[in-house]
Amino acid sequence: MVFFENVQISRTRWCSKLYLNALHLTRFKPRKSHAFVVFLTGCVKYTYPNNNVIIAEPNSFLYLPQGVEFDFQPIQPSTCLVVNFHTSGKTDFEAFGANYRNITKIRDCMLAAVNAYKNQNIGYKAEIFSEIYKIISLVQKNEINDYVSPEQRKKLQPAIEHIEKHFLDSDIKISELVKLCGISEKYFTTLFSHYYQSGAKQYIIHKKLEYARALLESTASSVTEISEACGFSSVYYFSKLFKQRTGMTPTDYRRINIY
């Protein structure tokens, strides 16, 4: 069964960034809504009926279904993004947690929804609806990975290793990555987009922005300095990309994420 296929979102509830202290085991009554959750820090244990246990850690994506009770136990102080919503008709999906390769995109959608709910500008409800559907699409696309064999994935390894070492460089040429893998550019593009749900250039930008997030949260470096450290051609281009991905400027992101 494809996740949330043909399911319509009927209403959104609160969307928020939550800070969870390490507490004792808490039993929650059946949820009043569905929820998508992405954990940023910490560790939490969810226990559902039939011994369905979910351990949520940084970069975990969770689906929590409406109408099901569960036990909740923060193991470590944690931070997460939560988007609550209702659907038209009944859904039969069980609670689950997953670590997806496209978690950066999912987290960006979650952050945009939380930011839209917080600001409540004109059209914010439509914006949240849009981000929820994007999340559903990204979760569904993870099924594509089933069609990429381990042998095919191995062909991409030289490119991934090169990106991991050099993603902060100002320019990594796709032709260079193709040459490292020893396959045609067309085949490289097909494998990469299937397995990582993005092109190689977008994947590199995601890596840069992830590093920029970490610097914004943990250093006092200026936005210009961070832009240069991440290999962007200009601070304007960096700020534009950052806002496209997160719904916030780098300055706003730093303001609400220092804790």
Short description:
This protein is α+β, with helices and mostly antiparallel strands. 46% of the residues lie in helices and 24% in strands. The protein contains nine helices and seven strands, in the order βββββββααααααααα.
Could you please describe the fold and organization of this structure?
The protein is of the alpha+beta class and 259 residues long. It is 46% helix and 24% strand. Strands 1, 2, 3, 4, 5, 6 and 7 form a seven-stranded antiparallel β-sheet that branches. Strand 3 and strand 4 form a beta hairpin. Helix 1 packs antiparallel against helix 2 and helix 3 packs across helix 4. The longest helix has 19 residues. It is globular and about 55 Å long. It starts with 7 loop residues before the first strand and ends with a helix.
Structure keywords:
single chain, 259 residues, alpha+beta, seven-stranded antiparallel sheet, 9 helices, globular
Task: Give the DSSP E fraction (strand runs of 2 or more residues).
Answer: 15-25%
What does the average pLDDT come to? 86
Q: How much is the radius of gyration in Å? A: 19 Å
Structural class: alpha+beta
Largest sheet: 7 strands, antiparallel
Distance between the termini: 40 Å
Helix content: 40-55%
Based on Cα principal axes, name the global outline: globular
Number of helices: 9
Topology order in helix (H) and strand (E) letters: EEEEEEEHHHHHHHHH
Number of strands: 7
Low-confidence stretches: none
List the helices and strands and how they pair.
Elements lengths: L7 E13 L5 E3 L5 E15 L3 E5 L4 E4 L5 E19 L7 E3 L4 H17 L4 H18 L8 H17 L7 H8 L3 H12 L3 H19 L4 H7 L5 H12 L3 H8 L2
Antiparallel strand pairs: 1-6, 2-6, 3-4, 3-5, 3-6, 5-7
Helix pairs in contact: 1-2, 3-4
